[in-house]
Amino acid sequence: MSNNSFSLASIWNQSLSAGRIEREMVPRRHCWASELSGSYYDRYYKMKGRQPTTPPNSRSQRKFAAGNLTEFLVKQILVRAGLLKETQTHISNTEFALEVTGKLDFLAGGEIKDITEDAFGDFPEGFDAVASSVVSKLRERHPQGLRDQILEIKSCSGMMFNLYEKQPATHHMLQLFHYAHTMKLPGLLIYISRDDLRIQEWGVMPNTEKLLKLYKKDVERMAEILTIDAPPLEPRLTIFNDKFKKNWHIEYSSYLGDYGYDSPSDYADTASKLCGRLNRVMKRRAEGKEMTDKNMEAIDAGIMFCSGYKEPKDE
């Protein structure tokens, strides 16, 4: 008898790697809604048609796949509840200096269907009951149906979810605001933890003044940068809540080599360690203590790092 044993892991990993097709970069004059509040450096070169030198690695691609799976489950609930009106519809806005376009996840609303007991029988065990309960409770609480609303779904790790519970990401809010403002409809930014399926939502109204200002400022600044020969590099470190932080615009840059790094971890490891040193210096300074030699070394290292200097690797 032949040996019919097989490796599911290798087949699965190979299939996931082959399943995502990278979009070829061509010059364009529009911004994608998902790029709002992102790196101007990356956006400049993508809009000029330059191919990424640091494309998403296999792990990043699998995160995209996990996100698609989460969206699929949400879509199935909306469809079976009779609430899905549109999905992946292109929404464009030309109010400001550049056209912004993107595809919304879902437009949902209307009368909620009275589902059957086995409406979600093909769902994973346990999750079928969850889905049924969600639809039933919506129907109980909103017997007249739901107003039309845009849903933007973001799946994330448990660690990131803990952060998003406290405050949503600006770029996610601006992406949803693009759809809400253009369509003049309210929207919900929904975070789903891939670890334990916790959900957190943040509402967006079509004319939220703060978001409108950020949206306009971002688009107009991008238009200005497109007129120059070369965009400025992103700052090596940022300051948030009075603490030094690594810059995610660099860590996840599609042109990471332009900063002198081979991989996201190459930058992140160095930047994180330096941020720890600099934050200890700031704490010591705030306490009114004198600077030590080690503190001064950390300050010098920070200056060198932010100027673009990179320590040579050990041979």
In what range is the share of β-strand residues? 15-25%
Number of contiguous helices: 10
Describe the global form.
globular
Uncertain segments: none
From the N-terminal CA to the C-terminal CA, the straight-line distance is 52 Å
Order of helices and strands: HEHHEEEEHEHHEEHEEHHH
The CATH class label of the largest domain is Alpha Beta
| Helix share bin | 40-55%
CATH topology of the largest domain: Lambda Exonuclease, Chain A
Q: Give, in spatial order, the strands making up the sheet with the most strands.
A: 2-5-6-7-8
- Structural class determined from secondary elements: alpha+beta
Kindly report the average pLDDT value. 90
Number of strands: 10
Q: Please outline the major beta sheet.
A: 5 strands, mixed
Named CATH architecture of the largest domain = Alpha-Beta Complex
Radius of gyration: 23 Å
For the record, the count of structural domains works out to 2
Write the layout of secondary structure elements.
Blueprint: H1 8-19, E1 30-32, H2 40-48, H3 58-80, E2 84-87, E3 90-93, E4 99-103, E5 106-110, H4 127-141, E6 146-156, H5 158-166, H6 170-183, E7 187-193, E8 199-204, H7 209-225, E9 237-240, E10 243-246, H8 248-251, H9 264-286, H10 293-306
Parallel strand pairs: 1-4, 6-7
Antiparallel strand pairs: 2-5, 3-4, 5-6, 7-8, 9-10
List the defining traits of the structure above:
three-stranded mixed sheet; five-stranded mixed sheet; 315 residues; alpha+beta; 2 domains
